[in-house]
Amino acid sequence: xxxxxxxxxxxxxxxxxxxxxxxxxxxxxxxxxxxxxxxxxxxxxxxxxxxxxxxxxxxxxxxxxxxxxxxxxxxxxxxxxxxxxxxxxxxxxxxxxxxxxxxxxxxxxxxxxxxxxxxxxxxxxxxxxxxxxxxxxxxxxxxxxxxxxxxxxxxxxxxxxxxxxxxxxxxxxxxxxxxxxxxxxxxxxxxxxxxxxxxxxxxxxxxxxxxxxxxxxxxxxxxxxxxxxxxxxxxxxxxxxxxxxxxxxxxxxxxxxxxxxxxxxxxxxxx
Length: 271
Known about the structure:
Layout: H1 3-30, E1 34-36, E2 42-44, H2 45-61, E3 67-69, H3 70-74, E4 84-92, H4 94-98, E5 105-112, E6 115-123, E7 128-134, E8 137-142, E9 158-159, E10 170-175, H5 181-187, E11 192-198, H6 202-208, E12 214-217, H7 223-235, E13 239-242, E14 262-265
Parallel strand pairs: 3-4, 10-11, 10-12
Antiparallel strand pairs: 1-2, 4-5, 5-6, 6-7, 7-8, 8-9, 12-14, 13-14
Helix pairs in contact: 1-2, 6-7
């Protein structure tokens, strides 16, 4: 896509992203009943409501491009994908959402030829919107779910660009809800001066903002967990790789869109 196509797609999707944010915030304030999926992960009514809003908007904004959405896949509804498809996680960080932490997000990523090229991440409880504005350009926007404005015109956009790492004193993010001994063991090979924790895809955005040098995840994730974040981080000058340094790619339908272990880097890989 060119820059104009990025903006057109964002403007087409922003009303639905804010609507999904409002739906999630209504449950966040009132509390929700939690059920467990077949893979033992939690799900709420907010996940389902947001996904319905987002998938309908994508079908109107980009007819003909398949939408692979987390809850639909969990229910056995997996579309046939081609060279281009969307990945949707309607409520990333469900565990954070359940425990009343604001670190949950709405994720929409576009995959083109196995590469994450476009991403929107919205944290409604924090009023933080992150997105790819064009090739090599990512921004952050402050916008509340109830905002009357639902297009890019007139909004203040803060460019995202990662920090220059101090090779002797790195800052690393890890998952708040999915801490693993394997992640700690992996990080020991680097001069980590500080470890920080956060939930959901916000970790990609925080690295893209320059708040850390890397985010390692040695645990189970799916493509909808990472696509939007990878697109945003890449546009901000970073990258996401597997543990052997290869780019994290998409379209792994034969493995139910499961990701290998990966590392998000603020710049080039340090492996």
